[in-house]
Every structure is written in structure tokens, then in C-alpha cells.
């Protein structure tokens, strides 16, 4: 059961959408053990990269809604340990979160932007990670943008968080409509961009 302070913080973020206080959000994220989740995501990304027949050098990773960089820290630590060269791009709409991550060297590139209008070229990333923020996608362009910026055979990784991780049917349909092939949809939603599919 959640303690009252953590529950109050969850309600605050869910109702206000105010992430401007980076130290406050970092404390909340650590209380939710998102640093441990970041390390777990790193192991998952390493596993997925081992499935690729040829690893680009360096691996290009994009994380959106990257917040204070706890996922970036976990992924980069795992890939560094595995000696996999990578460039980690962190994107968030909140500049204070990006600056907090940059000051702690959690990532390589820091971009302030909207994940439904990504400021990147087509076929640019090998791995796209999003930890959460499913509820902040009003335009309906999220998955078409995921498809656009991923390279063929690239992976989309969305860890499910909370006590009962679950990927809803509408989420699965949105992934499939965008031309991504679902590989897993339980504790993680993992999808891969087909080499042959093009959006009509």
C-alpha cells in the first residue's frame, strides 16, 4: 500500500501536470524506485540489441518524456558495461527536467520538444524508449512519430509501471495501425518496425 505522501504526489502530477520543480520530481521518482526500473530497462535494451544481426556504431537511442534522466542513467550504465557504443537522446517538454538530467550527465543530447511532433529526421533511432506519459497524447500522432523516427528493425520499448502492469487493447491497436509489430505486451510493450511496412 502507498504511503500518503507518495499518493499525494501522484495525485499532484496527475491533476496539475506541473513537472517544473525538478528536485521535487526526482524525489518522487526515487520514492517510486524509478532508478531501479531504469537499470531493468537497461538490461532489456541490452537483450534486444543482442537480437540484432548487425549493431550500428554507435547505437542511437531516443527517450521521450525523459524527465530527470533516471532511465538514461540505467540504460547507459548497462550498455557501457557491455561495451556497446551509444548516443542517448533525451527529449522532454519541461526544460527544468532536461537541465537537471544534463547537469548530472544522464544522457548525451538533450532536446526540449513535444513527442507528438518530433524534431528528428526519418529512420534515425535504433531504440525508442518511453517510460510513461501515455495520458499526454492529445493529437493522436504519437505512434506515427515512433514509426517515422525508428530505423527499420528498430525497437520501441514502453515499460509498464505500477502494481498491475497491463497494456490495453486500444494501445495495442494504435501500435499495429502505425505499422509496428508487437513482440511483447505484458510487463513491457515492445514493438519492432517492419522493414517493408509503409504508412498509407
TrEMBL record:
According to the lineage, what is the superkingdom? Answer: Bacteria
What SUPFAM superfamilies does this protein's entry cite? S-adenosyl-L-methionine-dependent methyltransferases
- Which residues belong to any copy of the Methyltransferase type domain? 83-157
UniProt GO molecular function: S-adenosylmethionine-dependent methyltransferase activity
Q: Which InterPro entries match?
A: Methyltransf_11, SAM-dependent_MTases_sf
Protein known as: Methyltransferase type 11 domain-containing protein
Species name for this entry? Candidatus Kaiserbacteria bacterium GW2011_GWB1_52_6
Biological classification of the source? Bacteria, Candidatus Kaiseribacteriota
Amino acid at each position: 500500500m502507498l504511503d500518503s505522501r507518495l499518493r499525494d504526489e501522484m495525485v499532484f502530477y496527475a491533476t496539475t501536470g506541473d513537472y517544473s520543480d525538478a528536485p521535487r520530481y526526482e524525489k518522487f521518482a526515487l520514492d517510486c524506485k524509478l532508478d531501479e526500473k531504469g537499470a531493468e530497462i537497461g538490461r532489456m535494451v541490452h537483450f534486444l540489441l543482442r537480437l540484432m544481426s548487425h549493431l550500428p556504431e554507435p547505437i542511437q537511442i531516443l527517450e521521450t518524456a525523459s524527465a530527470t534522466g533516471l532511465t538514461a542513467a540505467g540504460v547507459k550504465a548497462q550498455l557501457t558495461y557491455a561495451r556497446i557504443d551509444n548516443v542517448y537522446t533525451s527529449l522532454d517538454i519541461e526544460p527544468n527536467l532536461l537541465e537537471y538530467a544534463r547537469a548530472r550527465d544522464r544522457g548525451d543530447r538533450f532536446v526540449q520538444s513535444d513527442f507528438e511532433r518530433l524534431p528528428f529526421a526519418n529512420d534515425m533511432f535504433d531504440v525508442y524508449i518511453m517510460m510513461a506519459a501515455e495520458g499526454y497524447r492529445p493529437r493522436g500522432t504519437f505512434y506515427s512519430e515512433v514509426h517515422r523516427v525508428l530505423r527499420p528493425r528498430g525497437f520501441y520499448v514502453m515499460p509498464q509501471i505500477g502494481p498491475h502492469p497491463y497494456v490495453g487493447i486500444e494501445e495495442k491497436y494504435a501500435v499495429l495501425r502505425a505499422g509496428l509489430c508487437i513482440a511483447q505486451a505484458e510487463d513491457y510493450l515492445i514493438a519492432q518496425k517492419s522493414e517493408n511496412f509503409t504508412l498509407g
